[in-house]
Each structure stands twice: as structure tokens, then as C-alpha cells.
Amino acid sequence: MTTSSLELSRSEIAAAIEEFRRKPVGQHSATLQHIINIMRGEPIEGKYVLLCTKPHREWVLAQMNGRAKPITVFDDVVFHDLHTAELAIFRLRWKRHFGELPPELLDDEKTLLPPPAPEAR
Amino acid sequence: MLKITGYADRVSVFPGETIQFMVNCEAAAYEADIVRVVHGDTAPAGPGLKLVPIPSFPAATYPGRPQRIHAGSFGVVPDGPELSALASVSVQAMIQPTTPAKGEQGIITRWDPVRGAGFALVIDENGALALRVGDGLGGEATVSTGRAMHAGTWYFVGASFDAASGEIVVRQEPLRTFPGRDDTGSASATVSVRSIAHAGAPLLFAALFAREERGRIIAGAHYNGRIEAPRLCAVAVDRAAMEQLKTPPLPPLVSSPLLAAWDFSKDISGVSLVDVGPSRLDGYVVNMPARGVVGHLHQVDVHDWKSAPEQWGAIHFHDDDVYDAGWEADFAWKVPDDLPSGVYAARLRIEGQQQHVTFVVRAPRGKAGSKLLYIFPLATYLAYANEHFGTNSALVEMHLNRATVLHPHQVFLNEHREYGHSLYDTHTDGSPVYYSSRFRPILNMQPTIEANHGARPSNLWLFNADTHITDWLEENGFDFDVATDEDLHNEGLGLLRSYRTVMTSTHPEYYSRQMWDGLFAFTESGGRLMYMGGNGFYWRVAFHQTVPGVMEVRRAEAGSRSWEAPTGEYYHSFTGEYGGLWRRQGGRAPNVMCGVGFIAQGFDESSYYVRKPGSEDPRAAFILEGVGADERIGDFGLIGGGAAGMEVDCHNPALGSPPHALVLASSERHSEAHCLVVEEMLYNFMGSTGDVCPQVHADLVFYETLGGGAVFSVGSIAWAGSLSHNGYDNNVSLITKNVLDRFLDETPFEVAVREASLSR
């Protein structure tokens, strides 16, 4: 089930995704920032974050469960750079908020990483 | 999860003095040594970690032992003849519970858990008021109103126990209720218990006694909320008698059944609990609950607790307050007489983990070792101590405009709330954290630690980001002394007089009046100030006047706030001083201290400066020497890739930037994540972000002061992250060095102010 909707054309979505793929952090286009703001506005429960496991070298996916509650850590979803990690979170959130990506965007392995198979520790 | 943590009994130590280290270690043993902290940044893009072992404290192995923090504030009235003689009892108070549903919480208790003896007025498992009594012989009874209380509502609560009849009466009465609510209740029952005297326990407010450890009282069942006007009678009194005792003035004591009546509006600045009844059963607070908070009598139009303290007769207790962890010392170090002043740390290591307990070694008392003093901003570190930005709120990601990256110490702190909070956090019940203490492990005041704020690649904020400055000083061969701003608070201008130049950290945000006065007097009397950061001199803080190492902030009606103090709570309890922004304190905006003031913040990417006409002024020639007219300044760096970013300040004469100040350079092209600060907006409007709003920029400012002094301000937290770029050979480093070389030169700065104004 999705929680948000976007009134954007397929080409606008493709352009925004490509923009994020190139530069996930910093100044964005208005369209991309609009999308990001929707996705990041989710509550703390279930929010995707990264846990640094080796300083500046390794991060794993995690989910917040609320104040003072232990986070859920996905040990097997490992990243070795923050750029790739940003893309993975973007994709997970996209699915949650807007549904599956259009097939032609899914096919492009560079565009966004395949969804992780989370296994909490 | 962290298995080793520690803190020291002081953060600032003179040579020849001894510093003690308290360590919690779940491993059988740990290794400790002392290092000089030169550069704490481990990012591969930077010059790397530089921790220099101190030969006089070689690494040694110590036995590990777990040490716990017992968080939760409460009040204590020591056991005594009046309490131990209690047969019958009545207790009452005005209370405002904030988490009535969290489980059993003590309100007024004298309960011996070993014997099962005494009495305890509590909020029970169902959120209702209850009185428990026990005779110590196996007889225990509890009577509850059976009506759940509502969070945030003020209640009159009272209970009595008649030892002769065994009758218990309990009652709770909301001061205000609403249609559909059912939170008024009373109950009575006759129980078999006939004595409460066998309790070997003190009387506690807001908790139940558990045990004593090394002279410290350990309590449980901590209450969240406010307690006001607690009363104790040695007989069972009826509701009418309780009404007479409810609020001041108390009835004539001669004919009163009253044993004790505590007035929490007495000694708001202190830690005592004053009994204004006949017995003088004075007590004290543990773990610094919030005082100077409004009680149930607070009236509109009265805002300063000093003007009508009776309206501030409540204390707000929290189950996560902590003042002193109270751990036993594990090792100590007598600082060698010849150890140079600087930033040091005890490095604690077990397999796979290490922690650092950071401290400052000062120059020998009265003997400056250098002409340069670097101020270690302990007040700001305390404000951020053990912050929970990444784990308390979902908002932080919108703030940073990038994915939240948690680090092991943050995961630990999320689950170990007993380590206490920062002044950005809220308590369990959502109320603001007013106090922060240094007598606990401060996990984000150490080298190697990354943060949520402070952008990539280094991701450093505060202490570890500040090592970019100390590293640069060492790399460039500058001698410098270090003192904390708590030292400045205590010693004022006297601390600074021996120095030609004072250098700040990247974010000296929190200043007490004493700190402010001392530093301003320094620059106004020939001293030179290098303000090396952004958003400095912003919040007013107060240190406790009798209890060491604890600081207070009241985030009043303006500023970028993580919480807002409620009406009537804008005045510090520690001093009675008005809290909030220095900008709101009359002629003390940051611009008055350093020529610039906070204008915008954003935490994704940093930008660069370009030269402005002020840089062409001959007065500034020494600063820009070697920097091309069209050169971008600081389009590189470890904090967001530029020298201008995170929190930035601009020149504004309307707020007190000196009229002759030169704007040498300004930043441009900030990202949308850099937002104009709220105190500049007054009302919201579109176009207030860095990508479109020209106000969002940092200014590089220089001006001379009276008596041959001068001020140089970079107006950006990210500046220091650019110092080491290209092997320290870059224009940010060059400008900083140009300024420092001149600022250490004894030659007075001279300028005719009129001439300076004309030249702008």
C-alpha cells in the first residue's frame, strides 16, 4: 500500500530519479526536492537509517522503532559508500510512498539498487 | 553495543593536580593511557587521526567492572525521630503527573522495601492515586481511587491512615476536568495493618526508596511530573483539614495537626527542600529535578519567579534526570608539572572498542605558556552532551537533507537513557531538559566520534570538529594554551589578561554572563579575538551557584529551538537571570561580541566565500595577502566540501556589528537546506532558503577595538574543516595564518574610526 501520490509525468519522475542517482546530497531540482520531502516526512517508527559499522568504510541498513527502542539492524544489507546507501533508502521509500517504479526504471541497475532482503538481527 | 564508558571528576586541570577517572567496563580488563588530542578526525579525506601518547602515563591494564548510572530525580528528607515515630499519617500535595500510565510512581513515600514497612502515596499501575501501608510483619495493604489520572492535569491528592482503626482514605481531585472525564475519585477501606513505624527509610518525593550504596540513596518507581506543596500530618485528618493545608498561608501551627509542610518555592536556586512547618524536616533533591517551574497557582502577567516565588512552588521530577553518575574512581593521574597546556584524553581500550575521556590541561596557574589561548567550549559541549538528535525525532533528516547515519554511541544512548540528555532533548514525558552535567560519560565529547550534524566527508560536530583547529595550530607551529569556558566563567577577564589573542572553537554557542563579560572586556581592552566558527555567543546559560559542573538553559521566546520553555519558565532557576538568546538581552547580540550573528543553517553541503570591497581596504591588507582578487575562498573542505556552511553568521550593524567593521568576503550559492533562522523571519515567507535568499550567507569580518585590539570572525562552522586541505596549503589556512601572525604581534592596531567609516 502506498501512502503518497505524485502528480508527475513518467519523464519527470525519470529525470528526478536520474538526478538523485547522480547527486543524492546537496542542491536538488524543485521536483526532486519535492519528492524527497514527501518521503522523508515519514514518522520515526519504521524510518530507514544507516548504522555505521566501520567508520568511513561500512554502513548497514537499519530501521528506527521509536524513541528509546532498539533499532532493527539489517546486517546483510551492507554498503561501502554513502552514495549507494542513499540510493537504496530512496528506492525503499519510493516503493512505500509511491509504489513500484516504472519497469524501465527498475531495469536500470545503475538507477537504484535492488531491494534488500532484510533480515533483522 | 558499547561495553566501556567513562568520565573524569573534572574537565579542566592544572599541572600538578590530580584527575580521577571513573570507568564502566563489562570486559574483565581494559587498557588505559593518556594521549594528547591533536586531530580526532578519522576521515580518509583528511590528514588522519593524531593522538599522541604521553610518556609519563604509559599504557597499563586495569581490571574492568560494570558501573551503573541510577537516573531519576527525587527529593529526600532524611529519616529522623519525627518520621520514625509516625503511627497514623496523612499526606497531601498538588501534583501534575505527566506520565500517569507508565506504572507505579512514588509521590510521597517512606517505604522500606526489605521489611515491607511504612507508607507510600503513589500513582499505581492503573494511573490512579493509591496509598500503600505496611507493618513490617508481613501485613501490607493498598487502597486506590481506581480512577486513572490524565497527563498534564493538576490534581489535589491526599490520603490518610489511622493506625487505631486501620482506616485508609485516598482522594484525587482534578483542578479542572472536562465532559466525559472520570478522574475524580476517592476510596476508603479498613485494613488489617495497624503500624507503619518499622520503616528504616528516608521520606522521598517522586520515588520509592530502594537501598543505599556507598552513602547514596538509590530509588525506584520514579515519578514524572510536578509536585507542589506536599504536607505531612502525624494523624489521620479529614478533607476539610487538608483543604486548610492545601495552599499558603498555613493555619496557626499551634492548633494544627501538621508535622511538615514543604515549600518548594524556597531555595529555587539551590538544592534544599525547605519545611516551613513546625518540625523543620528539611530535605534535598537528588539528580537535579527542574526548579523554577510554574505551579498550580501561576497567574497570567507574572513571568519572573523572583517577583512572586509562591507561584513557582512546584518541582518537576523526571525519571531520566541525572546529575552525578557517582561511579567509583578506577585510576588517577597527577598531571606532570611540565606538561604543556592542551587537550588530552584518557584512552580506554578493550578488544574492538575504545572510548576517550577528554580533558584540558591548563597552563600553570598564573603563568601563561603562550600568547595564544584556545577556549575549549565546555558550555556548548555540555549543551550537546549525549544528544539524541538522530534517535528522538524523525525531523532530523529533514534538517540534514540526507539520510540519517547513526553511530554506535548514538545507538547506545538511545537505549541507555540513564546516561542523561543534552539540552536539545526532551525528557521521557516530553518536557524540556533544562540542565546538563559533566559528572557522567559524555560520549560525543571525544576524538574519532562522528555526528549527525557536520556534513560529509568528515561528519564532525563540536569537539571532534574543533580538533581541526588544534591540529592546524600544531601543524603550523603555534604555541597555545587551553582553558575551558567554564574556567572563563569562574575567572572572567583575569583568565584572559595574560594573552594577546583568544581563539574560539567552531561553535561557541552557549555563553553565561560571566563568560560574555570576560571576553568582551578582553576585546575592549586591547585583546584580539579570532572567532573561528558560526552561531557563536547565541544562547544565554547559567551555571549553578553552589553545585559544581551543571549548566542550565531556558529556550525563551525566540531562536532556533529544539523545544520551547513554557510560559513562566524563561528565567533560569540557578541564577534568576532571564534566559534565551543573547540577542534578546539588550545590546548583547552576537554581532556586538564578534561583528557577525547567526543568520542561517543547513547541514548538507557547504559553500565558499568571494572577496568583497572591504577586502580592498588597506586595514585588511595583511589578512588577504597572498589571496587573489577573484579567488574563491574555501571551495573545499572536510565539513560539507566548503568553508562556509552548517551554521553561518552575517554582518548586521542593526544588531550591533561595529560601524567600522570590514566585510572582507561573503559566501554565496548556499543550498536550499540552508534556511534563514527563525529569529530573522518573524513571520514565514517563501524564498527563505539558501538557493534563493541573499540573506543566507556567511560574512568574513575584521575590525579593530579600543586599546589596540582587534576581532576577526569567519562566521561559519565549516571554516575549520578547510584548514588542512592540500597539506594545509590553501587560502583558508593562509588567511587564518595571516590573521594569527598579526594578532600575536604586540604592535597595537590603530585606526581612526571616522576614517575607517569613510573608506567603506
Tell me which protein chains meet in the greatest interface and how many residues each side has: A-B, 33 and 33 residues
The count of β-strands of chain B is 43
Mean pLDDT of chain A: 86
Query: Which ranges of chain B are low-confidence, i.e. pLDDT below 50, for 5 or more consecutive residues?
Result: none
Number of continuous helical runs of chain B: 15
Stretches with pLDDT under 50, minimum 5 residues of chain A? none
Query: Cα-atom Rg of chain B, whole angstroms?
Result: 28 Å
Q: What is the average of the pLDDT values of chain B?
A: 96
Task: Describe the SSE topology.
The complex is a heterodimer of chains A (121) and B (760).
Chain A: H1 10-22, H2 30-40, E1 48-54, E2 58-63, E3 72-79, H3 82-98, H4 103-106
Antiparallel strand pairs in A: 1-2, 2-3
Chain B: E1 4-8, E2 12-13, E3 18-25, E4 29-39, E5 50-53, E6 60-63, E7 74-77, H1 81-84, E8 89-97, E9 105-112, E10 117-123, E11 129-135, E12 140-144, E13 155-162, E14 167-174, E15 185-190, E16 203-205, E17 208-213, E18 216-220, E19 225-233, H2 239-246, E20 258-263, E21 272-275, E22 283-286, E23 290-293, E24 314-317, E25 329-334, E26 342-350, E27 353-361, E28 372-376, H3 378-383, H4 389-392, H5 396-400, E29 405-406, H6 408-415, E30 435-437, H7 463-475, E31 481-484, H8 485-491, H9 493-496, E32 501-503, E33 510-512, H10 513-523, E34 528-531, E35 539-543, E36 550-553, E37 580-581, H11 590-594, E38 596-611, H12 621-624, E39 644-651, E40 662-668, E41 675-676, E42 699-705, E43 709-713, H13 725-728, H14 731-744, H15 753-759
Parallel strand pairs in B: 2-27, 28-31, 28-32, 32-34, 33-35, 34-43
Antiparallel strand pairs in B: 1-3, 3-25, 4-5, 4-6, 4-26, 7-16, 7-22, 8-13, 8-19, 9-10, 9-16, 10-11, 11-12, 13-14, 14-15, 17-18, 19-20, 19-24, 20-21, 21-22, 23-24, 26-27, 30-36, 35-36, 35-37, 38-39, 38-40, 38-41, 40-42, 42-43
